[in-house]
C-alpha cells in the first residue's frame, strides 16, 4: 500500500455518510477519503460538512470523487444501492441491486483499480459474491461486512444480560447477514469461560432470556427501519473497523462475508465467517468447531443463499 492511504466511498446515502463520519473521526484510518454518488450536490454538501470536523479530529483529505479516482485507491467501499424499505427483507433487494452493481463495479475496474473491495450494500453476502464475479478479482480481495454488525449486537446483548463489559464477550453470529443467520452458542465465552459454564455457575442468569436475545439481534434491523427508516450508525462504524484492519495490516479476526471453498462443508458462496483480515484482504477463513446443529444451520443458510444467488444471476442474463 502507498504511504498515503486512499479510500474511495461509493454511495453517499445514510450508510455511506455514517461511514464517512466514522472514518473522519478515526485516527490513521486512511489519509484520503473520496466520495462518489449520483447526487453530486449531496456529496459536495457532505464533503463541506466533514471538512468542518477535521479541525477537531485528524488531518484528512476529503473530496468529491469520480470513478477514475479509484485507480490508485487502496480500498473501495461500496454502500450504494436501493435502500431497504419497511416490511422488505434484505433479499427483496437482490434483483434491483444486482443490476446497479454490474455497471458500478465495471467502472471501478476500468479505472485500473488494484486494491480491495469492501461491500456493505444489502443483501451483502450476495452482492459481495456479485462484486467478486463482476470484478474478476481474487476472492481474497473482495470482502463483505458480513455478520460483523450482528456479532457486535450479539455481544452487547449478552454483556447487558450478564452485566459485564461487552469487550470481554467473545461470540459470533454466522451465516447470512439476514434471516438465516445463527448464533454460534457452543463457541461463545465470557472472559475465557464458556457461556454455558457461566450460566451454570450464575443462577441469576435466565437461560431462556439469554436465548431470546439472539432473536432480538436477528430482527433488530427491522425494528430500527420501522422506527426511523434505516440502519446506518452501527454499520458505518463496523465498516470503519474492517477498513482499519485492512489499512493497518492488523491480521484481525472479524466475521466478514468471505468466500467459502470447502469450509464448513460449503462451497462457492460468500457468508459471514471468522476471517483474518490484513492489507492483502482476507488472509484466510478458518473453521470453528461448531455443534452438529450449528453446522446444519450454517449449511442451510448457504443453501438458501445459493438458491437466491442462482436465480438473481439467471435473471441478470435474461
Automatic annotation (TrEMBL):
Alphabetized PANTHER family for the sequence: L-2-HYDROXYCARBOXYLATE DEHYDROGENASE (NAD(P)(+)), L-LACTATE DEHYDROGENASE
Pathway: Fermentation; pyruvate fermentation to lactate; (S)-lactate from pyruvate: step 1/1
Keywords associated with the record: Allosteric enzyme, Cytoplasm, NAD, Oxidoreductase, Phosphoprotein
An annotated GO BP: lactate metabolic process
Annotated ranges, domain Lactate/malate dehydrogenase N-terminal: 6-144
Residues involved in beta-D-fructose 1,6-bisphosphate binding: 155, 170
Binding-site list for substrate: 84, 90, 122-125, 150-153, 231
Binding site for NAD(+): 11-16, 37, 42, 67, 81-82, 97, 120-122, 145
UniProt enzyme class: oxidoreductase
Activity-regulation annotation: Allosterically activated by fructose 1,6-bisphosphate (FBP).
Protein name as catalogued: L-lactate dehydrogenase
Species of origin: Aerococcus suis
Modified residues (Phosphotyrosine): 222
Gene3D superfamilies tied to this protein: Lactate dehydrogenase/glycoside hydrolase, family 4, C-terminal, NAD(P)-binding Rossmann-like Domain
Amino acid at each position: 500500500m502507498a504511504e498515503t492511504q486512499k479510500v474511495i466511498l461509493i454511495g453517499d446515502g445514510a450508510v455511506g455518510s455514517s461511514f464517512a463520519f466514522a472514518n473522519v473521526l478515526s485516527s490513521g484510518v486512511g489519509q484520503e477519503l473520496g466520495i462518489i454518488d449520483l447526487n453530486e450536490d449531496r456529496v459536495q454538501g457532505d464533503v463541506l460538512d466533514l471538512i468542518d470536523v477535521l479541525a477537531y479530529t485528524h488531518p484528512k483529505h476529503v473530496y468529491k470523487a469520480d470513478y477514475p479516482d479509484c485507480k490508485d485507491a487502496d480500498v473501495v467501499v461500496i454502500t450504494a444501492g436501493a435502500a431497504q424499505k419497511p416490511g422488505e427483507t434484505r433479499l427483496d433487494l437482490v434483483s434491483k441491486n444486482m443490476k446497479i452493481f454490474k455497471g458500478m463495479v465495471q467502472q471501478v475496474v476500468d479505472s485500473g483499480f488494484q486494491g480491495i473491495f469492501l461491500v456493505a450494500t444489502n443483501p451483502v453476502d450476495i452482492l459481495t459474491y456479485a462484486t467478486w464475479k463482476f470484478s474478476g478479482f481474487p476472492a481474497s480481495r473482495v470482502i463483505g461486512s458480513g455478520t460483523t454488525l450482528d456479532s457486535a449486537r450479539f455481544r452487547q446483548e449478552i454483556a447487558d444480560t450478564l452485566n459485564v463489559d461487552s469487550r470481554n464477550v467473545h461470540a459470533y453470529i454466522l451465516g447470512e447477514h439476514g434471516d438465516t443467520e445463527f448464533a454460534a452458542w457452543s463457541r461463545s465465552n465470557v472472559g475465557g469461560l464458556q457461556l454455558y459454564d457461566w450460566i451454570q455457575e450464575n443462577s441469576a442468569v435466565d437461560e431462556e432470556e439469554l436465548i431470546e436475545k439472539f432473536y432480538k439481534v436477528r430482527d433488530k434491523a427491522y425494528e430500527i427501519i420501522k422506527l426511523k427508516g434505516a440502519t446506518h450508525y452501527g454499520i458505518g462504524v463496523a465498516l470503519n473497523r474492517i477498513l482499519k484492519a485492512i489499512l493497518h495490516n492488523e491480521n484481525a479476526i472479524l466475521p466478514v462475508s468471505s468466500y467459502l471453498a470447502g469450509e464448513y462443508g460449503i462451497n462457492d458462496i460468500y457468508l459471514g465467517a471468522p476471517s483474518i483480515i490484513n492489507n492483502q484482504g482476507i488472509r484466510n477463513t478458518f473453521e470453528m468447531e461448531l455443534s452438529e446443529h450449528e453446522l446444519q444451520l450454517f449449511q442451510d443458510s448457504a443453501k438458501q443463499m445459493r438458491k437466491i444467488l442462482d436465480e438473481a444471476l439467471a435473471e441478470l442474463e435474461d
